[in-house]
Amino acid sequence: MGDKIKIPTLKITEVSTYHDSIVNPLQFISNVKYKDYHINSLEIIKDKANFKVRPHRKTVHDFLFLTKGSAKRSKGLNNIDFKGSVVFFLPAYQITEHSKMSLDAEGFFCHFDESLFDFLPKSYLSNRYSFFKLQSNPVIQLSKETTQSCESILNRMLKLYKTGEKTRRNLIAFYLLTFFEEVFKEVDNVPKKSKNSFFRITESYKQALTEHIYEYKQISDYANLLNVTPNYLNKCIKASVNKTAQELLKEMLALEAKSLIKYSDLDISEIAVKLCDQTPSNFARFFKKQTGLTPKEYSKMD
């Protein structure tokens, strides 16, 4: 069973194989040329109507720059519809699922390892750019002028990528930094400091859920991990997303359950025990309450 029994965490060398198994083929997502970055244009995706990538995590950062059309993608528990001209940033180790892309979608996809910037201080990206922080809004709306500048930068990157010149690694890194600076001009002002701590705790809780959902099922366990009380954890989450810690825990269980039902070889009774430590009937009631479908109904969906 191996990686099939839960949402996988993909190394940069595994992304192509995973995508190929979802959309046949996605040979353009290549990790052969470079070990620490990849870029491709969205125009070469021929079957956009059926473009779907199931839930996964990557050990690298990525972004989707949409210059035209629309798409739907998730960051953690948040599903977001967006349309050009926007950039969707996803920090490493975040759960994501790409569920929709319009037929007229144009733009670029890029993923990269932070080691590409080994000439910069550690954690430079997350310290400098808010969109690489866990609590950030992943979608940045760009002005017409910034869209044109960013498109020009990524076209240069794509041209350089296609030449296979491995000696130009630093140039790629500087192109990316220039791209980030262009996008950063469009970022709204940071929320008031009084709310920042609530957002940080909430996003840390979401991250803990993605990492420990098979180990911990109690809010108190997560509160201990974050060095806060359960009451304070709930206060932070309520202020940030108007939900309770328990509601987010159930959403994460449902997200993992969907992946297991669709893509693992476990039967419903095994999933009920492995993920929720429940009887099949209790698990079925839980799943239907969260998704509106029974596990069996969900398994038959395309």
Descriptive account of the structure:
The chain is α+β, with helices and mostly antiparallel strands. The chain folds into two domains: 2-184, Regulatory protein AraC (Jelly Rolls), CATH 2.60.120; 193-299, Arc Repressor Mutant, subunit A, CATH 1.10.10. It has eleven helices and ten strands. It has helices spanning 15-20, 124-128, 144-163, 169-184, 193-212, 219-225, 230-241, 245-263, 268-276, 280-291, 295-299; strands at 9-10, 37-41, 53-58, 61-68, 70-75, 78-83, 86-90, 96-101, 106-112, 139-141. It has a five-stranded mixed β-sheet. Strands 2-9-4-7-10 form a five-stranded antiparallel β-sheet, with helices on one face. Strand 5 and strand 6 form a beta hairpin. The longest helix has 20 residues, at 144-163. The chain starts with 8 loop residues before the first strand and ends with a helix.
Quick summary:
The chain has two domains: 183 residues, Jelly Rolls; 107 residues, Orthogonal Bundle (Arc Repressor Mutant, subunit A), CATH 1.10.10.
Notable characteristics:
43% helix; 11 helices; alpha+beta; 2 domains; Jelly Rolls; single chain; Arc Repressor Mutant, subunit A; 302 residues; 10 strands; 18% strand; five-stranded antiparallel beta sheet
